[in-house]
Every structure is written in structure tokens, then in C-alpha cells.
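Module 6 notes. Inverse folding takes a fixed backbone as the condition and produces residue identities as the prediction. Think of it as a translation problem where the source language is geometry and the target language is the twenty amino acids. Below is one complete input and output pair. Work through it position by position during the lab.
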């Protein structure tokens, strides 16, 4: 999504779903790492890392301005 561009509601929802899908995939991979290891320190390190917020999380910086009933502009 680019600032100044106009997007349909469906495009915005697809963008959000795509980003959430990526987040879910990453969490599944981390869970697989946790279940494969028996080292307690490694498990704690994975828990701490997975709980830290991502500074580059795209959805937090998505600012929309409603243009009409089905279009929004990204700013």
C-alpha cells in the first residue's frame, strides 16, 4: 500500500489478511522450534523473542482516509 493511493475496501482487506497470514506463519514456525527443542534456556529465549513487538509491523502504520462508501486513501 502506497501513501496517496486510493484503494477499494476489498484491496485493503486483502492487504490486511496477507499480513496477518504472514504473522501466523511466523508464529507457527516459532512454535515448531519450541516443540523440537528440550533445552529450557532455548525455550525461554524463544518465548521472550516472540513476545517482543515488531518495529516494522506494517498494519500499525496503515492510515486510511475514507473517500466514499467503498474507497479509502492511504496517507
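Target side of the pair, the amino acids:
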Amino acid at each position: 500500500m502506497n501513501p496517496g493511493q486510493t484503494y477499494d475496501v476489498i484491496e485493503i482487506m486483502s492487504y490486511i489478511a496477507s499480513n496477518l497470514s504472514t504473522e501466523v506463519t511466523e508464529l507457527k514456525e516459532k512454535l515448531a522450534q519450541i516443540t523440537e527443542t528440550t533445552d529450557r534456556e532455548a525455550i525461554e529465549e524463544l518465548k521472550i523473542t516472540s513476545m517482543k513487538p515488531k518495529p516494522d509491523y506494517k498494519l500499525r502504520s496503515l492510515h486510511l482516509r475514507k473517500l466514499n462508501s467503498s474507497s479509502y486513501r492511504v496517507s
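Reference fact for the lab report: The radius of gyration is 17 Å.
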